[in-house]
UniProtKB/TrEMBL annotation:
Originating gene: LOC111024872
The organism's place on the tree of life at top rank: Eukaryota
Protein name: Exportin-4
Family label: Belongs to the exportin family.
GO molecular function per UniProt: nuclear export signal receptor activity
One Gene Ontology CC term in the entry: cytoplasm
Localization of this protein: Cytoplasm; Nucleus
Keyword terms: Cytoplasm, Nucleus, Protein transport, Transport
Keyword Protein transport among UniProt keywords: yes
Matching Gene3D superfamilies: Leucine-rich Repeat Variant (1.25.10.10)
InterPro entries documented for this protein: ARM-like (IPR011989), ARM-type_fold (IPR016024), XPO4/7-like (IPR044189)
GO aspect biological process, one term: protein export from nucleus
């Protein structure tokens, strides 16, 4: 099938509408198992089209069909990775900004999987351009994320900002990064740069976000939206501490912990694998000397006291996230501790 044409000039609204309707129909056909091969060919045509960004952005902003928006986000990702070397610097940055603005503007959307897809696309494109962008250009992206995580725009936006950082950290981690057809050296340079310049900052943002909502969670008589913010922040903190830090001198030893009677959602077994956490002396101020560990233990104790009478307490996401992080702190080792401590 011939690919959808995407003009680089002024938008042809009729053509954009026709393409959107074709993608919506294809998504509906797949869902209802009506001529799925033709429907898949239509979607594939969009993903393989040259420079489909205007069309995909139109679909994301105007379609009422969640699956169509999901496919449009996927098409942006495929095309941008494929055409990256030929895109101008302005187009590269505008694609990332569009994705970031989209997830913030639609923070309260019930279609979380679409939000997660657009967030993942933003993270992948940011990594693809990581070595191309100046430090000031990266900072402009992160300024927007930091503003959202501070909570000034509401808990939904705060949650989306934290989730984006989770996507970004996953994208830079060797075990969860996406294939981009680039040499290993590229991925290693990106990983090293994120670890040295941003990882601790992200951890602090997550810690501050969790701390900013805990009083509201503990004092409230009902469940509040801030619970999901705190849960996401604790999950991001755990993810960052589980990073394979480059400055580890000795090989990491894996330690298996078993939570008796606790089901870890998303795992097929009750076993979770934890590594020795050896981030190095630069992290001492954040993790050890700041009293951060005591804050986490006190938070968990307060949450347990508040919710332990409820049958779902052990399995609820905030309890699981807090316990995982506490166990991760038990695994701190290496030069983060002073030799005389």
């Amino acid at each position: 099938m011939q690919g959808f044409q995407d003009s680089s000039g002024p938008p042809n609204v009729a053509q954009l509408q026709a393409t959107m309707q074709a993608i919506e129909l294809a998504c509906a056909s797949i869902q209802m198992h009506i001529n799925p091969s033709a429907a898949e060919a239509t979607i594939l045509s969009l993903r393989q089209s040259p420079h489909p960004y205007q069309t995909c952005q139109f679909i994301l902003e105007n379609s009422l069909v969640a699956n169509a928006r999901f496919q449009a986000a996927a098409a942006i990702r495929d095309a941008a990775i494929r055409e990256w070397s030929f895109l101008t610097a302005d187009v590269k940055k505008s694609l990332i900004r569009f994705c970031l603005c989209y997830i913030m503007q639609h923070a309260s959307s019930p279609e979380r999987y679409v939000q997660a897809k657009v967030s993942a696309v933003a993270a992948q494109l940011m990594k693809r351009g990581w070595l191309d962008f100046e430090a000031s250009e990266r900072e402009s992206f992160f300024y927007q994320i930091n503003q959202s995580i501070h909570g000034a725009h509401g808990s939904d936006v705060q949650f989306c900002g934290i989730n984006f950082l989770e996507s970004l950290v996953s994208e830079f981690s060797p075990s969860t990064s996406s294939a981009m057809g680039l040499p290993r050296e590229f991925h290693e340079q990106c990983r090293r740069s994120l670890e040295l310049n941003y990882l601790k900052t992200f951890y602090c943002w997550a810690k501050d976000a969790a701390a900013s909502v805990t009083s509201m969670i503990i004092d409230s008589q009902t469940e509040v939206p801030e619970v999901k913010v705190c849960t996401a922040a604790l999950r991001l903190m755990f993810q960052i501490l589980n990073w394979d830090f480059h400055n580890t001198v000795a090989a990491k030893a894996s330690i298996n912990f078993y939570f008796v009677g606790v089901k870890d959602h998303g795992d097929s077994t009750k076993r979770s694998e934890y590594n020795l956490v050896q981030p190095g002396p630069a992290w001492c101020d954040v993790l050890v000397s700041s009293g951060h560990i005591s804050w986490l233990l006190n938070l968990y104790a307060a949450l347990r006291q508040k919710f332990s009478c409820q049958a779902f307490w052990l399995d609820c996401p905030i309890a699981l996230s807090a316990r995982k992080l506490i166990v991760q702190f038990c695994s701190l080792a290496g030069t983060i501790f002073h030799s005389d401590a």
